[in-house]
Amino acid sequence: MIAEDLPKRLLSDAALVLKKIAEALLPALEKISTVITPKRILVAGSVLAAILFFAFVYIRATSEAPPLASFEKARLSLSQARHAEAWIYAPGLLQEAEASWAQAGVQWEQESQKWRHQRRFRKALIATIKTARLADSAATVAFVTKDSLQWLAATGISLVKEKIETLRAQFENLPVQSQLRSRFFQGELAILESELAFRREDYVHAVVCYHQAAERVGSAGDEATKILRTYLANIPKWQKWAAETIAWSKAQQDIAIIVDKIAARSQVYKAGELLVEFPIELGPRWVGHKKLRGDKATPEGRYHVTKRKERERTGYYKALEINYPNDEDKLGFREAVARGELPRTAHIGGLIEIHGEGGKGANWTAGCVALRNDHMDEVYKLAKIGTPVTIVGSLKGLPALEETFQNLRKHTNGHTQR
User: What is the pLDDT of residue 391?
Assistant: First the structure.
């Protein structure tokens, strides 16, 4: 735009100067027009040429050249800032730089509309210098921020994925409330979205999703920890039950059975000594004591075998029915109904057994204790009517699980009448 206007502006300036010179010389020329001679014409021409030369020199000396180099530097700086994705990682600086660039263009255009000797590009020059400075800063900040976010996202994704895997491994057999399970699942989805954003180099979104995953998994872990801590506070009571059962076995020189729900083990004692130990499967909602019929929870308490079943008497290969609900269970059920913790239409349930058909690799019963058929054969041979069966939540607790939750917080988880 400036290069195209230059010849036209120079001609206009020269015409203006010639006009003013002509107006100044016109009276003198009128006086000497009657006595024109060749010599006087030559002198007048020389004077006129000198005047034109000095007028041209004056115009060039008093006009300013447009700051082309400064404009080019500002343009390149803006291009580099955009290439560095400053609109993502340094949007404020880039906006300031672009505003300054627009102002420089306005100042350039305004000065270009003036006579050449009247042009002053100082404001445009200052605007281009400011543009280059802001654009360079935006590019630098964008580069550093992007690099930092990339490292943060990579580290955070790795950490949360590790915690999710640890938490899943620890809880694969622990029943968790549906809302906590849903929150944990949302955390898994968030970390997947974070990984996808990382792969497309959208590190801002990757970090946002990583924080969401950490918060959801962590909060689910916190609540699960609270529930489990309350549950495991009964360990002293359960250990007392187990000790009394083993002592009975020793005193009577007889068989006694202890079921540890968290360990998922059934222990058979003879004369106070551990004889055999087998893996078990329980009801899917086995954490906590059985409250009512249909809750698919395995009861906790001190019971004894009331029936031995096999063949057509049971649908589970062989079975040892126990005396659930006992008097303590019935009293607790009535008190829970009276307090409003259970509906008045609820039933306490019954028909809890140690039976076969286990080995499915999951907690699937309606509240019973399931063993593999070959293990059930051994237990069935040893047990008789009256054999004590003590069912506890845990005898040792979950130290590994507690440690997992603490680390996660730092960043920053059958039968119709059961």
Answer: 97
**Residues 239 and 314 both lie in one domain:** yes
Q: Is residue 254 part of a domain?
A: yes
Q: Is there a domain that residue 300 lies in?
A: yes
In a domain, residue 320? The reply is yes
Same domain membership, residue 150 and residue 218: yes
Identify the bridge partners of residue 303 per DSSP, sorted by sequence position: 389
pLDDT tens, position by position, 29-84: 565 555 556 666 666 666 566 565 555 554 454 455 778 889 999 999 999 999 99
Q: Which helix (H) or strand (E) holds 275?
A: strand 273-279
The encoded tokens of residue 142 equal 């964008």
Torsion of CA 184, 190, 194, 196, to 10 degrees: 110
Average pLDDT, the chain: 82
Tell me which residue range forms the domain holding 77. 2-140
CB atoms near residue 59 (< 10 Å): 18
**pLDDT tens, position by position, 344-391:** 889 998 899 999 999 998 889 989 999 999 999 999 999 999 999 999
According to the model, what pLDDT value does residue 190 have? Answer: 92
Low-confidence ranges of the chain (pLDDT < 50): 1-7, 10, 58-59, 61-62, 400-418
For residues 189 and 160, state if they share a domain.
yes
Task: Decide if 406 is inside a domain.
Answer: no
